[in-house]
Amino acid sequence: MAKLPNRIAWHDGDVLHVIRLGKTTNAKIARPTDKVLQTYHFDLRQLALVRSHLDGKRKIPMADFFALDAANCMDCPLSSNSGNGKCYTHKYMQFAGFVSMLKSLCNEEIYEGITAVQRADIMKMAERADFIRFGTYGEPSLLDIGIVGDIVLSKRDGVEWTGYTHQAGNEWAQQYSAYFMASAHSDADAVSFTGWRSFICLEPDDTSDGVQCPASKELSVSNCSTCGLCSGIVGKGNKNVKINMH
Fold it and tell me: Where are the beta strands (DSSP E) in the chain?
């Protein structure tokens, strides 16, 4: 019997999808012993940038890497290609992790489109996961809605998931409201996303009627894998969730 992989990668057009089953050192996300299924979405140009630096003679400037996020981050207001570049992933430790992942993928053949075998393996990985995190990097709504739904259906009872999208204002993204939170920046912003629950990231001194994120620095009484509030319409909870800008 073939060993179940802990990582699946393929690309759709200019977007590289990576789904990985592993652990996290971030206590706000999950316990150190939890097996976390995480999805990552890169622009293929980011992979090409990493491949061009494999000789190790030159370091990859972090700003150069995140500037190539048009395909995977789209028009996110926190992206580098069209936003202010203030995404919480734009920190050195996250950047180093992304580069390490892409370096390892440079040794693999990555095909366009997902195969039936890869899809089946992802569902087996979901069955083993203690927590599922859509969009650890990049826009998770770029992942086929059928795959998203099947991952949620494949998980064990009691296993939580989270997902966030900045595409809630687009007609094509409405089906993702079942599983993901609309990324908002005020209560007025959240109200504009009809049919969605929102995760509201507040600027200093702003207020919101949302429920305070239990894993936030302000509350810090839980983690994402235990909480699971940020799981769209069919998930856990029925109110918007708020957090201070981080």
Answer: 7-12, 15-22, 36-43, 131-137, 160-162, 164-165, 181-184, 198-202, 211-212, 241-244
**pLDDT higher than 70, residue 166:** yes
Binning pLDDT at 50, 70 and 90, where does residue 200 land?
very high
User: In sequence order, what are the residues at sequence separation of 6 or more whose Cβ sits closer than 8 angstroms to the Cβ of residue 107?
Assistant: none
Tokens of 18: 């990576």
Give the number of domains in the chain: 1
Decide if 27 is inside a domain. yes
Distance in angstroms (rounded) separating the CA atoms of residues 184 and 202: 9
- Residue 2 belongs to a domain: no
Count of Cβ atoms closer than 10 Å to residue 229 Cβ: 22
Structural domain boundaries, residue 170? 7-244
Q: To the nearest whole percent, how much of the chain has pLDDT over 90?
A: 88
